[in-house]
Design a protein that fits this description.
single chain, 342 residues, alpha/beta, Rossmann fold, two-stranded parallel ribbon, globular
Length: 342
Amino acid sequence: MSPRILVTGATGFVAGHCIAELLRAGYRVRATVRDLDAAHRRAHLTALGGDLEFVAADLGFDTGWAAAAHGVDGVLHVASPFPSAPPKHEDDLIRPAVDGTLRVLRAAADAGVRRVVQTSSTAAIAYGHPDSGVRTEADWTVVSKATAYPKSKTLAERAAWDFAAAHPDGPELVVLNPGIILGPLLGTATSTSHEPIRRLLTREMPGMPRVTWAPVDVRDLAVAHRLALETPAAAGNRYICAGDPLTLPEIARLLAAEFGPLGYRIPSRTIPDFVVRAVALVDRSVALTVPNLGMRELVSADKVRAELGWDMRPVRESVVDTAESLIRAGIVPAPAGGFVSA
């Protein structure tokens, strides 16, 4: 019988693609949701077919995790808060991330699970350094110089490694550190990482802040999760899953080339940093951008390519497929006057 894998946060963007990848590969999947009665929120997952079951468990509570982990061979701990605006208090983000991680690891250890793959972030690697060099898995974000989100990812990952060190007979731990995650929706729930593309398509963003990210396609990231489960030598390792730096103007040019002929008016001018900071005072979602102004996220994915045999699709495909899925789901409306023939 094929292994059964537990995936946390089933209705999330990344978790949904991980579930789809596992089912394609012939795994049996158990997935956690907060509310079993909200079947409409997971209809896109049920439609995938395959051996898929749902159980109730919430990262904020102990209830349900023992049953969720019972009888599974591996865990993909994907669920973690990713806010669309900075929290009023950083502990509102940090505590759920850290405590939820420890709940999953304790349940996995008690159930005798073989391996846990945790989804962390390049946010746990790239922030607060005094130089602008290329970051590798040996680097850690400097917590004292980080804002709430990178701090939450760093502390949650640190907590996972500390747990693994304290429980040498417990589950093997593998951590993936993706950059900004692009790619198509499976359902209608979006991720915060979709916001730059959505705002460019709708012109809610009249221009572009000077920001740069290291992107990864969610479909490639799902493959990396499967490989991290399957590769014996991955145990005890963290892996950066992200490509070359991608600027917001580069994203805008890709969107303009593809969707401009269809009537979408993609912004082309750059917004000065002082304007972005001023807007952030009244638009909390823009405030997430401020720590990244002028920063180039330079990371190396050499290790995951060499050790897991992983690779990424072209970034143009990721950007275009993201935009097309937002339009298809009705999250981005048709341009004024309808579509123009390309």
